[in-house]
Amino acid sequence: MLLEAKKITKRFPGVLAVDNVDFEVYENEIVSLVGENGAGKSTLIKVLTGTLKPDSGEIYVNGEKVSYHSPLDAFKRGISVIHQELNLCENLTVSENIFLAHELVRGKKKALYSLVDEKTMRRKAQELLDMIGARFSPNTYVSDLTTAQRQMVEICKALVKEPKVIFMDEPTSSLTVEETRRLFEIIKRLKERGISIVFVSHKLEEVKEISDRVVVMRDGKRVGELRKEEIDVDTIIRLMVGRDVEYFPHGIETTPGEVVLEVKNLSWKNRVKNVSFQLRKGEVLGFAGLVGAGRTETMLLVFGVNQKDSGEIYVRGKKVEINTPMDAIRLGIGLIPEDRKLQGLVLKMTVKDNVVLPSLKRLSKKGFILNEGEEEKVSEEYVRKLSIKTPSVYQIVENLSGGNQQKVVLAKWLALNADILIFDEPTRGIDVATKAEIHRMIRELAAQGKSIIMISSELPEILNLSDRIVVMWEGEITAVLDNRERKVTQEEIMYYASGQRKQNRGDIR
Ligand SMILES: Nc1ncnc2c1ncn2[C@@H]1O[C@H](COP(=O)(O)OP(=O)(O)OP(=O)(O)O)[C@@H](O)[C@H]1O
Ligand SMILES: [Mg+2]
User: Fold this and answer.
1) Ligand 1 neighbours by CB, cut-off 6 Å
2) Which of 241, 259, 276 is where one domain is finished?
3) Predicted local confidence at residue 506, as pLDDT
4) pLDDT grade for 109, boundaries at 50, 70 and 90
5) Are 408 and 390 in contact (CB under 8 A)?
6) For a substitution probing ligand 1, which of 340, 400, 438 has the most ligand atoms within 8 Å of its CB?
7) What CATH number is associated with residue 83?
8) Which of 51, 52, 66, 250 is most solvent-facing, going by the fewest CB within 10 Å?
9) CA of 28 to the centre of ligand 1 (A)
10) 447 and 251 Cβ atoms separated by less than 8 Å
C-alpha cells in the first residue's frame, strides 16, 4: 500500500467535514473519490496532502507513519496534488511555475548565494511537457494559456519530484470532451509509469471509464467502495445520494411567445462575427460549440461586460444601448457567469450578502435603506431551494465547497428575478442530484415565462433542455436548430460545431 489513512476526522466551525474516514491508495491504481457537493472530498484530500491538519487520525506513507507540517512535507514523500481551484501564477512562465519553490540552482546548494539555473529548468520543463504530450513552450506566460493547458502545467508541477501518488481534485470540470480524453491518456500513461492517481469528478460516466476502484463519501463519512467490476453509474448515485435520481426533467413543456431579445450582427475583435439571434418568452435557447467558439464572448457583449464593435441589441422590440452590466440588469437581464471566482462571487462576503447583492435595490426600504430581515429571508429561501450546504446564510462564501459556491452564484441571479437569464455552464462542478434539480428549475423558469439562454459544453444538457439550439464555431453562428421535439442529435451538433454551415438557419420568422 502506498498510502493509508486511518480514522481521519476534520472539523470546521459548525461543520464536521470529514468523519472518521479510512482511505487507502494501492500501487498502480486509479481510484476515484466521489460524493455530493460538500461531502468532504476536497477536505480529505487536503488532509492527506498536508494542506490541512486533521483533528485526529493517522497517515502512513509506504508503511511509515507521518505527520505533515506543510504540503512540501507530503510532496517530498511523493504525494502530489492538483487542487480543485488551479493555483498558478499568471505573470510567470510555464517553466517558472513548474519549478516554483523547487528552483534548480547553479553551483553548490549550500552556498551563501546561488543563481537560479533557468536554462536547465527550461529544458526539464520541456521534457515534462513532452512526456504528457503538451504542445506549448515552457517560455509561455500562464496568462496566455487555456484552462486545459493550465491543467497540464499543474500536472507537470505535480511530476517534478517523481511522485508515487497524484491527487486530482475535479481536473475535468472545465475541460471539453476532447480535452478530457487527452487528460485520460495522460493519466493512463502515468499509471504505466507506476504512479497511482486519486481522481475526483462529478461526471460519473468518466469515473466509470477511468477507475480501477471507487470510494464513495456522504456527509463526511465513507459510505461505500466499488471494485472495478462493480462500478456502474446508478450504483454510484445510490451510494452517494441514498436514492435514485432522474437525470432530466420530462414533461415541463412551454409554448414560446414573442421575441424578448434580438441581437443583430454583433461583432467584437474578430472573436464574435456578425452574430444574430432571437430569444423568445418562455424558451430555453441552448448555445453549443467547442470551447473558444465565442459563446461566452457573445454573452459578455449582451450583458455589457465588454463593448461591442458593431451590431444592435433589441429588448422587447426596443433598440437598447448596453454599456455596463448595470444597464443590462435594469433591462431585466441576468448573467450567471462561467468563472465563479473571477466574475461570480465576492469570496470574503457571506452567503447572504452574495445572494442579495444584485437585488439590493429591490429588497431595500424605499429603494435605499437596507432591510436585513428581508435579505435574510430571501437568501434562506434560496439556500433551501438549491440545497446549499452551509451552517447558515452568515457563512463566508470562501468556506463553502466548490459546488456549493456555484449554487450561490445561481441563487444570486435567481433572486434578482430577471426576465432574461443567461446561464454560462450552469452545472459545472455540481453533483448529480443537484444537477437534476437545476435542470428542473431551468425548465420551470421557462414555463413561468422567463427567457433563458444556456451555454453548455455538455451535449446531453443542451439536447434535453433546449427548445432551440444555436451552434457556434470560431465566433460565428453556423446553425440554429429546432429542438422542440427533442430530436436533435449529438452528431448533428458536432457537425455544425466543427464549422459546417446550415443553409436554412431556421430562425423564427
Ligand atoms: N475552510 C473551511 N471553513 C469552514 N468550512 C469548510 C472549510 N472548508 C470546507 N468546509 C466545509 O466542509 C464541508 C466539506 O467541504 P469539501 O470542500 O471537502 O466538499 P467536497 O466534497 O469537495 O465538495 P465539492 O464537490 O462541492 O467540491 C462543506 O460543508 C464545506 O462547507
Ligand atoms: Mg471539492
Assistant:
1) 12, 15, 17, 35, 37-43, 84, 389, 399-404
2) 241
3) 56
4) low
5) no
6) 400
7) 3.40.50.300
8) 250
9) 29
10) no
Mean residue pLDDT of the chain comes to: 90
Clarify whether residues 165 and 310 are in a common domain: no
DSSP annotation of 270 = T
Sheet containing 318-320: order of strands: 272-280, 259-268, 310-315, 318-320
Residues 500 and 396 in one domain: no
Say if residue 380 is in the same domain as residue 425. Answer: no
Give the pLDDT of residue 509: 47
What residues does 10 pair with on adjacent strands?
A: 18
Nearest-ligand number for the alpha carbon of 47: 1
Q: Are residues 34 and 124 in the same domain?
A: yes
| 337 lies in some domain | no
What pLDDT is recorded for position 342? 60
Q: Give, using CA atoms, the residue closest to atom 31 of ligand 1.
A: 400
At residue 24 the predicted structure's pLDDT band, cuts being 50, 70 and 90, is very high
Residue 410 inside a domain? The answer is yes
Backbone angles phi, psi at 233, to 5 degrees: -55, -45
- Please name the residue whose Cα sits nearest to atom 24 of ligand 1: 37
Expressed as residue numbers, the domain containing 431 is 251-332+419-509
Residue 249: is its pLDDT beyond 80? no
Q: What does the pLDDT average to over 68-89?
A: 90
Residue 170's identity, in one-letter code, is E
Residue 134 falls within a domain, yes or no?
Answer: yes
Shared-domain flag, residues 288 and 399: no
Contact 238, 244 (CB under 8 A): yes
Q: Please, which residues have CB less than 5 A from ligand 2, an ion?
A: 41-42, 84, 401-402
Question: Number of helices and strands (H, E) in the chain?
Answer: 17, 22
The owner of cell 485520460 is: 184
For residues 494-500, give the mean pLDDT: 91
Are both 366 and 301 inside the same structural domain?
no
Residues 6+ apart with CB under 8 A from 449: 257, 281, 282, 419
Last residue of a domain, one of 366, 386, 417: 417
> Domains in the chain: how many in total?
3
- Cell numbers placing 82: 492538483
Which pLDDT tens digit goes with each residue over 400-453?
A: 988 898 889 889 888 888 899 999 988 888 898 888 888 988 999 999 999 999
Residues 49, 179, single domain; the answer is yes
What confidence category does residue 107 fall into, taking pLDDT thresholds of 50, 70 and 90?
A: low
Same domain, yes or no: 46 and 183: yes
- Where are the extended beta strands (E) located within 172-250? 196-200, 213-218, 221-227
The pTM score is 0.84
Q: Is 92 part of any domain?
A: yes
How many residues does the structure list for the chain?
509
